[in-house]
Amino acid sequence: MTPLPVSIDATLELMRGGGYVSDRSLATVLYLSLKMGRPLFLEGEAGVGKTEIAKVLADRLGRRLIRLQCYEGLDVASAVYEWNYSAQMIEIRAAEASGAVDRERLVEDVFTERFLIKRPLLQALEPDVGGAPVLLIDELDRADEAFEAYLLEVLADNQVTIPELGTFRAKSPPIVIVTTNRTREIHDALKRRCLYHWIDYPDAVRELEIVRTKVPGAGERLSREVVSFVQRLRNEDLFKNPGVAETLDWASALTELDQTALNPETVSETLGVLLKYQDDISRIEGSKARALVDEVKADLSAAE
Amino acid sequence: MSDESEIEVDKTGRLAENIVYFARGLRRAGLAVGPAAVIDAIRAVEVAGVATREDFYWALHSIFVSKREHRAVFDEAFRLFWRRRQNLEEMLSSLLSDGDRPEEPEKPRPGVTRAAEAMFPNAGAPAKPHKDDPKVEGRLLVSERELLQHRDFAQMSAAEISEARHRIEQMRLPNDRVKTRRLVASPRSGPIDVRRTLRTSLRTGGKMILLRHRRPSEIHPPIVILADISGSMSQYTRIFLQFMHVVGERRRRVYSFLFGTRLTNITRQIRLKDPDEALAACSEAVADWSGGTRIATALHEFNRLWGRRVLGQGAIVLLFTDGLERETDEDLGVEMDRLHRSCRRLIWLNPLLRYGGFEAKARGIRAMLPHVDEFRPIHSLEAIADLCAALSERRADMADPRRWLSAA
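The joint structure predicted for all components is written out below.
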């Protein structure tokens, strides 16, 4: 078990060690959240690396990662706990077969931890030899509001109440990371209990560093051009801007095609890796892509 | 009991009477004040004493005000009611004739209309402190010039508010209930609820196992209201805002936007509980009242910045606009198409239909019509009731946009 980082710089280093190039604002909020024991609420466009933070953090700190993927209709039975009904039924039948059925006893026997199936939230509150786990509550905006309200108790007090058994309280609270894509506004009451951070698209320097770290096979010239092209694309008022994930996909796609530099034809052919809306693709394809590539080349040669 | 205490009783007796009248006034103004609250108030005043006006104010406040939004009304009612008697007539006249006294503040405070009505119900209809329509009104004029100005709206009366609430309760939007994937207990058939079944069976010691069921729960989908506040629509703006306010009060997940030459999200402002405060806050937040219209630009901005945030989970979009735009190009159709494809149902409410011989001839209207699910006609839009009636209209043939396209 790795101890928690002791400073913002140490946090930056920790993440970098796991191949996550973060900027200082993110490192600061991450450090604070670890230090203060508050959940971290990450919001941002799809593909800017929200989920990755939790993965890298769990990996570097040597903690268990417990992931709760949210979806519409997510309820307590699949997020917190469920009773093992078939085992309970068998228990009841067995009690009947043995003759003496004492109702009170039976209720006590059937609703014990033995028959409890623990789901992610409850698992996260259990003590762990490797230290408190990292709990990733992914895409919270997909769950319905009722579930969000349920989370309040978990996030604020690190506890879960099971009517038949009582309240489970975590001895050492988990490191909680909540992510949302903002397809719905999350209630202020939940945000209030967390530290908030908006993850933006990275600037050119950081994005280049990310490409170098994640796609080491791509040549230096190609990486520079790819990053510069994507950065320009984000200023184009597109319906959906390409995220970091798309940049990385594109860099590896071009590397697979044995490209060492951008050329307009390949760009137009592989645009589907970057842009996922037909309107956007038809706007950029062809002459626009050519113009952007020319700009990129002119810029980079001027910088040299 | 000594003589002193009798005098005391006599004094509080008259005070108590006044408190009762005051409470009745508050009740008329829409505060939930019951007889128990009146008794509490009298007791509170007895305990706290009436040494200063401020103490008295806060003593009554602590009893009668139980919601934040009632503070404005209470404040106004208190100011009106607890005055020396000789000032009463003077005050009445100052209240009813607008702007005679120079020290009267420029803008009416929220709740003035309701408080005045409630305290002096027989004083005749109080003149509206401000005219509803602004001086500049380009009705049926479309201007691309960005005209930035602020507006004040006439305040809502208590009767208006309760009427509006009642109408909204009765309103049935098309496709107004959606099934969620969440299951709730159901008395009749559905998937078996093992948990409840097991718990009830344990009551009999497991001798009898009675099946319990579940069914999908139903909720109202989110409502997104996009209202045009350009010059040609300015006479309806107050109704739209009232509608947004009351719908937001009655339903969860209501998002309100206004657009003229620019798009403004007023969801937060309209959520203020007091209707006058809410309307005033909207007035503050929006810079382009009664200006020109750029529907395509506004829709583009909505689609790009807000669509993905508020249209999730099967939202119904209510679009209030006359569709009159000078600069109609392909963009309008494209943006409408995008909007249409991002929501579950797009309902266009067009007040232009008040003219009997309406035909979908204007280019903007023709560009928008193919992309709406329903085109709701409205012949006269005087109050929220008309709006609710138009939206609840059951006759689908009237709402079919193709009917209007083929007619023109």
